[in-house]
Amino acid sequence: MKKLSLSAFVMLAFGAAFCAHPQSYPAKPLRLISPYPPGGGTDATARIIAQALGDQMGQQVVVDTRGGASGRIGVEIASRAPADGYNLVLGNVAPMAILPASGIRLAYDPVGGFTPISLIATSDYILTVHPSLPAKTVKELLALAKSKPGMLTYASSGNLGGPHLGGELLNLMGGVKLVHVPYKGNGPAAIAVLTGEATMMFGTGPSVVPHMEAGKMRALATTGKKRTMKDLPAMAEMMPGYEVTQWYGILAPAGTPAAIIERLNREIAAAIANPRVASAFVKLGTAPVASTSAEFAVLIRTEIERWTKVINAAGIKGD
What we know:
- The protein is α/β, with parallel strands linked by helices.
- The chain folds into 2 domains: 16-122 and 246-314, D-Maltodextrin-Binding Protein, domain 2; 126-238, D-Maltodextrin-Binding Protein, domain 2 (3-Layer(aba) Sandwich), CATH 3.40.190.
- The chain contains 12 helices and 11 strands.
- The chain has helices spanning 6-24, 41-57, 72-79, 93-102, 138-147, 162-174, 186-194, 205-213, 235-238, 258-273, 275-283, 293-314; strands at 30-34, 61-65, 87-92, 114-124, 126-129, 153-156, 179-182, 200-203, 218-222, 245-253, 287-288.
- The strands form 2 sheets. It has a 6-stranded mixed beta sheet, sandwiched between helices. A 5-stranded mixed beta sheet has the order 7-6-8-5-9, sandwiched between helices.
């Protein structure tokens, strides 16, 4: 039998170890960084998908909540984490597209610093107001805002988040001046509306639907192209071209082995196809959706381009 050279032996041994790694993965719990505080859509979404993946893969997926700065803090932490398949982040439109579009300096690269794995859900925001506000439709709200320029306020989950841009787009297209008041997440923003500290908000389903059902908030519209809630119009029906959509997807630090990315993509697709998991997302007011890694990457680049135009038109300055 012909002897192998030392270099050939090392290459074969390395290849065997690499091929074996995906089969043994995961060998310990995974960490899923959720870059928003509890009480909002990101936190709820993270916990649903973490539980589903943990059940499927036989290892716990621990949700690591790192809220603040419209998702920037958590995403920065994820960007510095080892690219070993055990560190993931739940990205959404704000830290992955809107903040990069704003031109502010970030300690992470949303395109080159991560490998997108898969989308998991999309949702519209819900424009809700305090019940005491004398406006039951978007038309009435715009009329009231025009009669009181600079007097009506809208709470958001943070500067340069999706809810912030929802209000700025309404200002641009509706010819009004609503005053933005940022908070550290949709949960705190909802409390501001409930207490009357703010007039309205563009909220995620988990942050506003319970209050709507309790009669403590009044919903006026959703922010997508088409109706997604019964008896509630889409903003685009009154303002053609208006669209602000939230999306959630899982990413890994750049350099994570391709075999692991492919495995996680398959696991996410299986989770989204599970009726129990899909039902949990629907109850949140989100639409479960899986994608390929390439499709998710295209979405991120497209969203950065779209929000760059809106931010420039509105003259928004990053913090």
